[in-house]
Amino acid sequence: MRDVAIVGFAQSPSHPDPIHNDVETLTPVIAEAVKRSGIPRKEIGFICSGSCDYLTGVPFAFVSALDAVGAWPPVRESHVEMDGAWALYEAWVRLQVGDVDSALVYGFGKSSVGDTRDISVAQLDPYYVAPLWPDSVSMAALQARALLEGDRRQETGDSARYTERDFAEVVARNLKNAKRNQLAQVAGVFDVEMLLQAPYDVSPLREHDCPPVSDGAAAIVLAAGELARKVHERPAWISGIDHRIEAHSLGARDLAKSPSAALAAEKAGAGQGSIDVAELHAPFSHQELILRDAMGLGEEVEINPSGGALAANPIMATGLIRIGEAASRVMNGTAKRALGHATSGPCLQQNLVCVMEAG
Amino acid sequence: MQTLVSFDFMSDASPSTQPEVLSAQHVLEYPYKRSLGPVIGRFFTSLREGRIEGVRTAAGRVIVPPTEYDPETSEPLSEFVEVGTSGVVTSWAWVTNPRPNHPLQRPFAWVLIKLDGADTAMLHAVDAGSESGMATGMRVRVRWAAEREGGIKDIECFEAEGS
Amino acid sequence: MSDEPLTMLRSPLKLEYTYTAGEISTRFLRGFAEGKILGRRCPECDKVYVPPRGNCPICTSAMDREVELAHTGTITKFCIVNLPFAARNIEIPYVSASVLLDGADVSIFHLIQEIPYNEIRIGMRVEAVWEKPEHRIPGMESILYFRPNREPDVDVNLFEDAGA
Fold it and tell me: Is the peptide bond before B65 cis (omega within 30 degrees of 0)?
């Protein structure tokens, strides 16, 4: 396997933006990531993006984003209708071939344009589930209740069940971390008791247990071997990357656990050393608890110093940003080993884990 | 397949009241018609007749609603089994403010229900009246739609057994 | 109720959006309400794009120089449409064409009218026919169509990237 590292990362501030369209949001982010990588844009060998046309409401909307990369002379390019984290996976695979040494990856989306709670229904089983229109918060709430009533012993040896207080503590921790993140949308010091007084949205989830509606974009530049060493003092080397998906049918899954996150973490080598920092893509507070248990991330791991998806959720970039945030801490020397996670599909159906190490 | 996309630009009154950027309401509408195939077709045909069927895997697991392939082994499935029209709630979530597309337009519970004889749960709604009427483990039974056309909404919702 | 087994399911999908044109497109669209066709020039490549974008699609430089384009141009490509299209009320067959406006480096699409469809040719010179000023809106429909302006045909092979 070829050694591939992250050598550049940039993201836009996350907020609903009625003024700028997708391309206008994305262009400065790509320019910044490329600049930070030290590799001239025209020398980058492969370009891959992640976005969702349903967010924009226009078929093939992602094609217009090529204005942000300058696709002339023609470039090697690909796209996934997924979070940019999966575009990063494809770029990593592409670099293994050996004929190109660098890749530009980006994810973007304007969640404010449509109603993402309803748009998410379009990903569900069109025969058995979608006609009932269970929106994304409703689906997450079913999983949250399953967690409150589920048995944790298998993962943690702990017989105590999770409570709504645990959810509120996840929210408080993430939003307090977000105060140090100038690009986050929601941040602040929130008292857990006050959070528990808030009314339910779809019980057992409250509004603050759910992600904000964000527009945004992120970009990462990957480089292989010698090129990475040449352009960056401390590249974030990808020591393992893997993703797994569970069955489509919600009723066939144990929603309180995440076997796909566990397996992806195992195959990415997460357990092969201690993790200093983990950025987990948990748009709903209870999901951070499920993911920590699945991946065996104990109290010693710093979780979501960025504030995570509860602080900013530019859908289609959120997962890529987790990887970028984790990579940043390796690149700036504050972490030796970091984990970035991304999720896709209802109730953590599909999970990607990327483990990065200092050289 | 026709795609209906319509833009109606919001008109500006006068230069002094013009917003900085133009915006427009955009409706994306697709009139999909999906073929059912033999497995889903049989399930919906049974629903129309007031029966619920699942499909049995080689290992003996009964999947409801039925899938064409075993989710674990990917073997094709064709052995249909009738299951009960009542079952147990395995998870639920209370909707205080239903959205326009939701199956009920008064507060209700989303549920995962394991029907009697099934080994997997199906997603639907329970008309419980209030959140205090819901509990994991409670038994519910089908309330059939007055007019059944062949779809998951032939089950209007579920209601507590004994109600 | 039929006794036939079911084979199809109607599953319509309807989603609603509030679309923003962005700053650059807003200026472009507003230009039509004022009877103007606005493009933008790339300071590095020196090419003029219409409709305009914020960044050059080739070098990604910011294109902050607005250029007002002529209302005349040359047909670089065209097609004769024989099928009725749901949204339009035009007599068929009609011609849809790429028109390279004088001053631009990429073409716009529009209708060609006031000439029999079988007399239209590549290289033909055309001019915009506008909606009455009081009926113009911020959109390309403020131009009703293009029609021949009786200037002699141009050899499009003389244009660099004329296929655009």
Answer: yes
- CATH homologous superfamily for A116-211+237-357? Thiolase/Chalcone synthase (3.40.47.10)
pTM over 0.90: yes
Structural domain that includes position C113: 22-155
Tokens of B1: 């397949």
Instruction: Read off the amino acid at residue A238.
Output: I
**In this structure, is residue B51 part of a structural domain?**
yes
What is the span of the domain harbouring residue B106? Answer: 37-160
Q: What is the mean pLDDT of each run of 10 residues along chain C (164 residues)?
A: 82 92 90 96 94 87 91 96 78 93 95 94 97 95 96 82 48
Q: Residue B50, by phi and psi: left (phi above 0), alpha (psi -120 to 50) or beta?
A: left
**Which of chain A's residues have a Cβ under 8 Å away from the Cβ of C23?**
19-20, 24
Neighbours of C29 (CB within 10 A): 21
Determine how many CB atoms are found less than 10 A away from the CB of residue A41: 19
| Sheet strands side by side (includes C48-49) | C48-49, C37-41, C65-69
* Number of Cα atoms under 13 Å in the Cβ half of residue A193: 0
Q: What pLDDT, on a 0 to 100 scale, did the predictor assign at position C144?
A: 95
Residue C161 domain-assigned (yes or no): no
State the pLDDT at residue A256.
93
Q: Say if B4 falls within a structural domain.
A: no
Which pLDDT score is estimated for B141? 98
B22 belongs to a structural domain: no
The answer to whether C27 and A40 are in contact (CB under 8 A) is: no
CATH number of A4-115+213-234: 3.40.47.10
Q: Which residues of chain A have pLDDT under 70?
A: 152-159
Structure tokens that stand for C116 in this block: 């029999």
Q: Chain C residues within 8 A (CB-CB) of chain A? A: 9, 11, 13, 15-25, 53-60
Quote the ipTM score. Answer: 0.92
Alpha carbon distance A107, A84 (integer Å)? 4
Asked whether A142 and A255 are in contact (CB, 8 A), the reply is yes
* Residue of C1, C2, C7 to mutate when probing chain B, most B C-beta within 10 A: C7
Start and end residues for every CATH 3.40.47.10 domain found in chain A: 4-115+213-234, 116-211+237-357
Which chain A residues touch C19 with a CB distance below 8 Å? Answer: 57, 113
> Which residues pair with residue C66 across a beta bridge?
C40
For B85, counting Cβ atoms within 10 Å of its Cβ (0-12 exposed, 13-18 middle, 19+ buried), the class is: middle
Given B22, B26, B31, which is nearest C12 (Cβ)? Answer: B31
